[in-house]
Design goal:
Protein name: Replication initiation protein
Distance between the termini: 38 Å
Structural class: alpha+beta
Number of helices: 13
Oligomer: single chain
Radius of gyration: 26 Å
Strand content: 15-25%
Number of domains: 2
Order of helices and strands: HHHEEEHEHHHEEHEEEHHHEHEH
Helix content: 25-40%
Strand order of the largest sheet: 9-4-6-5-10
Pfam families: RepSA
Length: about 475
């Protein structure tokens, strides 16, 4: 709720814009638009019109034009997955990722996986980068190698003990090739599975399928690592039980062997030597247990963990969330020493490896892959989840306008004519402040419902 107290800390320009907006004739409609975007921080502004026509009679059932809207534009959510860019849209993206991963663990027939999927062997694997030099860390109850016991939020965590000897070039080249390391890992994994099953690769493929969903995360030192749900299925995917030989132990052993085999060669260039990039030795593979049976790694915990990191990127290491043109910009942006050196390494290496596009991905510390990926048959897709949400909202809109539902009467068809043009994006300072308040109100409401849900479920169980 907007109050005089919450507005007191605004700078004069933002306050003046808030008061201008609040006094405008279209303020209520503007608030409605922002609520529909979830409080999006950088909405897309569109101009245009739509017209819904009854094909049989030619009668116009409904018409809409942005001429009626505040400022003559319609605002729609930007859809950015980065929490640093748009917390509102990132929350939606994280929710979709959670349901995608969870559907591949507990089963959801509406999302393409049966509940019997819980009986399939599945693990949560973490594959990391190798060392590029010693860094400040918190090794259990022991002090760091520098002799200090660092607190959990210490700024020096993840930074090199000796920046002058740290392999910054190797670190960004590893990030840059991380997606290829993962691709080779999936290839070798299938080979190792066949080897341990005593089958040819063709026979193993005919009897089983390996499905996965993964997310990339940055460690504090700026190196990418992957968290992956890896699952055994039968040859037809999640609907098919895996063969008897496809055990949890066989899957775990195959993951370790496959990771050890992966090697990606980088040719020498300029002053850079030839390199062979490999996974780090800190490979963690843990079985995933069913929720509520006392396991350390549960289905809910895994889905929540993956969803959490699907909205984060290199900015968690102290870099920025947009492209950087030159080294001088790093000083103006106040980037800390360690991420600055990683970015500078990308810019310096770009002329030596132009096909790797290190300059374009310098703000990502060289990483150029997708943050969230899955195999074809793991579960549903993010696109399918977005379509379900769009269909639901379209049905709500039809009901509100009194338009016919094509599913109720397939013969009563309608035709929608639409024309849209891009008119810009973003908010004015006052709009941005008000949108942030809308987002926080929505978030508080969600948290309140989440806190009340266990008590409601207990009451429902008692009544039953």
């Amino acid at each position: 709720m907007t109050t005089a107290a919450t507005m007191a800390g605004l700078d004069p320009a933002t306050l003046a814009d808030v008061l201008r907006l609040a006094g405008s004739t279209g303020f209520d409609r503007w608030q409605e638009q922002i609520k529909r975007t979830g409080g999006c921080a950088d909405p897309i502004r569109l101009t245009g019109a739509t017209k819904t026509i009854d094909r049989a009679t030619g009668h116009v059932l409904h018409s809409y034009s942005t001429d009626q809207e505040p400022g003559g534009t319609l605002r729609v959510a930007c859809g950015n997955r980065r929490a640093s860019r748009c917390p509102a849209c990132a929350w939606t993206y994280a929710g979709d990722t959670y349901h995608l991963i969870r559907a591949g663990l507990v089963g959801d027939p509406d999302k393409g996986t049966p509940h019997t999927i819980r009986d399939h062997p599945r693990v949560f694997a973490t594959l990391t980068a190798p060392s590029f030099g010693p860094v400040h860390n918190r090794p259990g109850n022991r002090p760091c190698r520098c002799g200090t016991r660092h607190p959990e939020d210490a700024a020096e965590l993840g930074t090199p003990l000796d920046p002058d000897t740290y392999d910054y070039a190797g670190a960004v080249l590893w990030n840059n090739h991380a997606s290829e390391l993962w691709r080779y890992f999936t290839i070798y994994l299938r080979r190792e599975i066949a080897k341990r099953a005593g089958l040819t690769q063709k026979a193993a493929h005919e009897q089983s399928r390996v499905s996965f969903g993964k997310v990339a995360e940055y460690q504090k030192r700026g190196a990418v690592h992957f968290h992956a749900v890896i699952r055994f299925d039968g040859p037809d995917g999640p609907d098919d039980p895996p063969p008897a030989w496809a055990t949890l132990d066989l899957l775990t052993d195959s993951i370790h062997a496959a990771a050890a085999r992966v090697a990606v060669d980088v040719d020498p260039a300029g002053d850079q030597p030839a390199r062979t990039l490999r996974w780090g030795t800190q490979l963690d593979v843990q079985p995933i247990g069913a929720f509520g049976h006392g396991e350390d790694i549960t289905e809910q915990a895994v889905a929540s963990y993956v969803a959490k990191y699907a909205t984060k990127a290199a900015e968690t290491t102290g870099t920025v969330d947009r492209r950087i043109g030159n080294k001088e910009a790093l000083i103006l942006l106040g980037v800390a020493d360690h991420p600055r050196r990683l970015i500078e390494a990308c810019l310096d290496l770009h002329p030596l490896y132009p096909d790797r596009k290190l300059r374009d991905w310098a703000h990502m510390l060289g990483f150029r892959g997708h943050f969230s990926t899955k195999s074809r048959r793991y579960s549903t897709t993010l696109g399918a989840l977005r379509q379900v949400r769009a269909d639901y909202r379209a049905a709500q809109q039809r009901e509100a306008l009194g338009l016919p539902d094509p599913d109720d009467n397939p013969e009563a068809t309608t035709l929608t004519l639409a024309h849209w043009s891009y008119a810009g994006h973003g908010h004015t300072p006052g709009e941005s402040w008000l949108a942030a308040n809308v987002r926080r109100d929505i978030q508080h409401n969600r948290e309140a419902v989440r806190e009340e849900l266990p008590a409601l479920l207990d009451l429902e169980g008692a009544a039953a």
